[in-house]
Design brief:
mainly alpha, two-stranded antiparallel ribbon, 2 strands, 70% helix, 3% strand
C-alpha cells in the first residue's frame, strides 16, 4: 500500500512540474503563478532565455518524477536513486521560485522524509 501511495505522490508531484514549463514558456497563465524572469524572491534577473532554460528543467524534472513513480511500481532497481536526484533538483527549482513554490518545497521535504523512513523500516 505504501509503495502505491508513494508512487502516486511521485507521479502527481511530477505532473505539477508541468506548470513551471507552461508558465515560463508563456503557454499558460495562472493568477497565482505569474510569469517572471526573476528568481529567488525576485532578487535576480535571469532574462527570457534563462527563464526558458529553467522551464525546460521543470519539464525534465516532471518526466523524471513520473519515471521514478513508475519505476517504484515495477520495482525497478534504479527508482530510488532517480527519486533522490529528482527530488533534489525539484527542491532547487522550488528554492529558485520562492515564495510561489513554497508548497512544492514542503512536498519535496515530505518525499525525502518518506524515503528516509522507508529505508529505515523497509517499506519499499
Amino acid at each position: 500500500m505504501i509503495k502505491f501511495l508513494m508512487s502516486a505522490l511521485l507521479i502527481v508531484h511530477g505532473l505539477v512540474h508541468i506548470l513551471g514549463f507552461l508558465i515560463f514558456f508563456e503557454i499558460m497563465k495562472i493568477d497565482t503563478l505569474k510569469y517572471t524572469t526573476r528568481v529567488l524572491w525576485g532578487r535576480f534577473e535571469i532574462g527570457r532565455i534563462g527563464i526558458r532554460l529553467l522551464g525546460v528543467v521543470w519539464l525534465l524534472v516532471m518526466v523524471a518524477f513520473i519515471a521514478a513513480g513508475v519505476g517504484l511500481l515495477v520495482s525497478a532497481p534504479w527508482w530510488l536513486s532517480l527519486t533522490l536526484w529528482t527530488t533534489a533538483a525539484s527542491a532547487v527549482l522550488c528554492l529558485l521560485g520562492l515564495p510561489d513554490t513554497v508548497f512544492g518545497l514542503i512536498i519535496n521535504g515530505l518525499i525525502f522524509a518518506i524515503l528516509y523512513f522507508g529505508g529505515t523500516f523497509s517499506w519499499f
